[in-house]
Design goal:
There is one protein chain. The protein has 268 residues and is an alpha+beta fold. It is built from 8 helices and 9 strands. The strands form 2 sheets. Strands 4, 5, 6, 7, 8 and 9 form a 6-stranded mixed β-sheet that branches. Strands 1-2-3 form a 3-stranded antiparallel β-sheet, with no helix packed on it. The chain starts with 15 loop residues before the first strand and ends in a 14-residue tail after the last strand.
């Protein structure tokens, strides 16, 4: 049966069919056959890598949370039942250094915060749980806006009571004018890299946000609660910022949409 959205890595064409599954020491992998160039290939998301994306992504995460190479390797081996060496972790860090730019400030953060860098709190909003997180080290080093830093840190203590039940910003019908442009930048690279480790669609949001929060040099918080309250009318709207960044002294707000290129402009 012909598959959709699968291209042959050798010839780049899509005349590909499934050809059974292959057992490896890391589990079963789908095997494909290209009818055009008559070559076979597996569904490996990281070609030419012994270990899968989950192992590599989590190893980088654990190291950048303040652990040593040896500690990171031991953690990955326990979690994934593999035999990763600290030299493998080191090679992955070097290989993906261009997109995982946290190494620029890692030593500075470790000096002050050691491994205690992430703060997390779960909020409920209209029956949905949102896992707010912020990076203590990056917030203090990058954020030169005292009121913003105070706001982010203050969310540890909680949100107003009305936050749990009031209207979500995304549900409002507002007509605005905007200019649409396509750009493939570092944030896209980080998201694409992290998405390879997501086991299903449900995990995509949290995997990307957590990876960027830990491994880039600009994301200071994710799932940040925001609200506006009109006292005279006693009404308010609430929402969340998926990813909050400080880059070159400027504030950037990112909304994670894995299929944004296919989104309807009015919906976006």
């Amino acid at each position: 049966m012909k598959t959709e959205n699968v291209l042959c890595p050798k010839c780049g064409k899509g005349n590909v069919i499934k050809k059974g599954r292959r057992k490896t020491k890391f589990g079963f992998r789908q095997f494909y056959y290209c009818k055009d160039c008559e070559s076979g290939f597996t569904d490996s998301k990281f070609p030419n890598k012994t270990y899968g994306p989950g192992v590599i992504v989590n190893a980088i995460n654990f190291y950048n949370l303040g652990n040593t190479l040896e500690e990171s390797a031991k953690h990955i081996n326990r979690r994934f039942k593999v035999k990763v060496s600290k030299s493998s972790v080191h090679s992955w860090l070097n290989e993906f250094m261009d997109i995982c730019t946290y190494h620029i400030i890692r030593d500075e953060v470790l000096t002050t915060y050691s491994k205690d860098v992430l703060v997390s709190k779960t909020y409920e909003h209209n029956g949905l749980n949102y896992n707010f997180k912020y990076h203590r080290g990056k917030t203090d080093i990058l954020c030169k806006y005292p009121s913003l830093a105070e706001y982010v840190k203050g969310l540890e203590r909680g949100c107003p009571e009305f936050f749990e039940n009031d209207n979500r910003c995304s549900q409002l019908k507002i007509t605005i004018s905007f200019k649409k442009s396509d750009r493939y930048n570092l944030a896209c690279m980080l998201a694409g890299f992290a998405l390879k480790s997501a086991r299903n669609n449900k995990e995509r949001h949290s995997v990307v946000e957590t990876f960027m929060l830990i491994n880039d040099s600009s994301t200071i918080a994710c799932e940040v609660p925001v609200w506006f309250w009109e006292k005279n009318l006693d009404v308010g709207i609430c929402g969340h910022i998926d990813i909050l960044q400080i880059r070159n002294g400027k504030i950037y707000i990112l909304d994670f949409k894995p299929d944004a290129i296919r989104e309807n402009e009015n919906k976006v």
